Amino acid sequence: MNRAQRGRVDALSVLAAHNPVQPIDNVGDWGEGAELILAQILGAEVGSSSAYVARAPRTRRRRLVGAAGVFGVTAVAAITALTLLPSGSTLVGPSVAAAAVLQQAQHSAAVSPPLPVGDFLYTRENAVELQLVGCLLPGECQGSLQDRLNDASKPHGYTIPTVTDIWVSPTGTGRLHRVTGAPTFLPGDLTAFKHAGQPIPQSGVVVDAALGDPTVTGIPDPTGWPTTAPELEAAIEQRDEDGHAQPQATFGFATELLQVAVEPALRAAAYGVMMMLPGVTSDGPQIDSLGRSGQGLSMTYSGLKVSIVVDPGTGDLLAKRTVLVAPARSSVPLDRGLAAGTVISDETFSAPTIVASIAVG
Length: 361
Fold this sequence. Notes:
By secondary structure, the chain is of the alpha+beta class. The chain has one domain (3-355). Helices cover 25% and strands 24% of the residues. The chain has ten helices and 13 strands. It has helices at residues 3-6, 12-18, 32-41, 96-110, 145-150, 189-196, 214-217, 229-240, 247-260, 264-274; strands spanning 52-53, 75-76, 120-133, 156-168, 174-180, 184-185, 206-210, 281-287, 293-301, 304-311, 316-324, 343-349, 353-355.
């Protein structure tokens, strides 16, 4: 069964006939709205004072936060986009330039020396992520549930920085230590949050946990993955995408595996998976925020451009950035009230270092 066949869902025609929001020329742009509409078709009962919470990311931290209980009306959404490929889709691989970068990075990862037994591979991630919430003040997002979810006139939120240290052993066990910094609110939103009684995020919040549970750590469990590209792609689709082909989700998950994979064959397989995906393009030579040189790769979907910078000579992941390029096409309704060019998340990763022990602090 090919990727297009795996991505086919019979309910697409039903969704297309019942979408009350906008004409759809590409089902892949529906995102979370498809789930909401399907719930409506199936007769889901949602009261006027209830919040519809979209499916949260299986990995990574949440990008949108709820204001549950604020004035009895809350609209919450998550960044994860549900992309279902329509029947008859013609899928191609990455661009020639992107494939060349990925092939070199794959080779570099494959020939890298294995991590010695007893040691750990240490990396540090510095990230800044935009969190959004809707329906924060009285009179916002009035009307039906669908209206409230798609009223992007008043997105509220803040950016929040985190510093995450990760130690991974040769067997995939290890530890994560994350510290949250102080939020920076969008103009006027600190006052809005206070008036609404919405809790103000605090700096200094610490997550310290063993690797293995993505709901706690926000990153994939590094153990138990196949080490060939076709098998790894199938495993990602099955475990993280409900069995449906979602190239952009596969791209994101493969990127996250590169953060925690210590086995050379698994790192090489992650790059091999990217070589199988349609829509991966080259951004050419890039300089990350730490001044390091690398090659840029990206995918654009649902109004978002997700870009990574890799060092093809070492196979290391250097940086990742998500930018809103077409707000009207975003699968996250609140994004539609933001300006094109808004940075959703910005992450840099230190060069992996071999250490003898886990040292927090």
